[in-house]
Amino acid sequence: MSIVQAASSFSEVCTTAILRSVNGVLAVLCSILVCCIADCSACYVSCMFEKELLVKCSGKLGALAVVIRQTNIVWMLFVACTGVINITLVRPRDNVEVNDTNTAIRKSNRSTSNDDVTSGSNLRQRKFSNSLGTDKHSMPSASLVSTNHSSGLLDEVKVIFLALWHMKWELLVSFSPFLMVFVAFLAFIRWNGSVVLGAKEAHTVSPHFAQIMYFGLVSALAVAPLHCSKGQVVDLFRSFWKRRPISFFQVFVAVIAGVFSVHFFSLVHPYLIADNRHYPFYLWRKVINAHWSMKYLLVPLYVYSWFSIFSTLGKVQRKIWVLAFFLATAAVLVPAPLIEFRYYTIPFYFIILHSHINDYQSWLLMGLLYLAINVFTMMIFLFRPFHWDHEPGIQRFIW
Fold it and tell me: What is the pTM of this model?
């Protein structure tokens, strides 16, 4: 009897009016506890410091991110790859600079011992050589920046593989937390039979290559002050013109791949066309599928968006990092048959993090853009409700 009374009182407490009254508090709590993005970001930042303790913490954060969302295993592996890239490409160059400095000091010492000079001049020469060594040790970052982006992709891959061989045991110990999480994830896949825990039939792996195109355009539009500016278009064109005809061939291949992707691998998930409460339904119906030719006409925009993203990331990151980021993004988005903006959040944050936007005008414009989007979303959600004929209750628009 007490259980029945408790159940009735619980139903009275959980009325619509009471639940709506606490929405403000719950919204604040939920906005803080965005665990998926927070864990992936913390995992990435922890691995950047290249300290053994922080790398282990990064592995634990990666494990938590995988528990929250299984596809985060890709981003955990991307973080591990980034850590390996930083260690293998930075340390060898630092060692080379130290060895060059020591060689220069030894040569100067031999020359001073052979020459019949005064002790005062020897002392001054030692001071000069020591100051030279100090200057060389104090400028590895500048040297790294200057050589960071001048080397080609194949050169970086060769350096990484050579360093991996010489540092294999050290890297194996340092990144063992990532390895253990990956092995545990493989065991989970074998036990569960799929990456998905819930409705496996609705989330089957599909070759949705058009999804990577959608993400490129959405990301470029979300950072429109950078990617859609006149200066970015001019810089991109100058870069293509400087590297012709290779750059023109790359654009041609990208356009062909884009047309091939949207023609053969532009999937329509049943959930997409069955629920008109979400924005992707209208983007698909009013834009992508408005006419049979529309998906082909959007291909140049997709290609430009990705080349602009590559150009922006390539200014501050190594080519191998940009390639790893693209492969990780493709590994997350291509198997997803449903168009969902929440799938885009983590790779988009990586793009924003490494875009290095320095002018306040761009940040102000992006802030106003995001503010307008949020205000529009809340206005539509609150003041444009609608009803379904086949289901009672009020329906609302949301992402």
Answer: 0.76
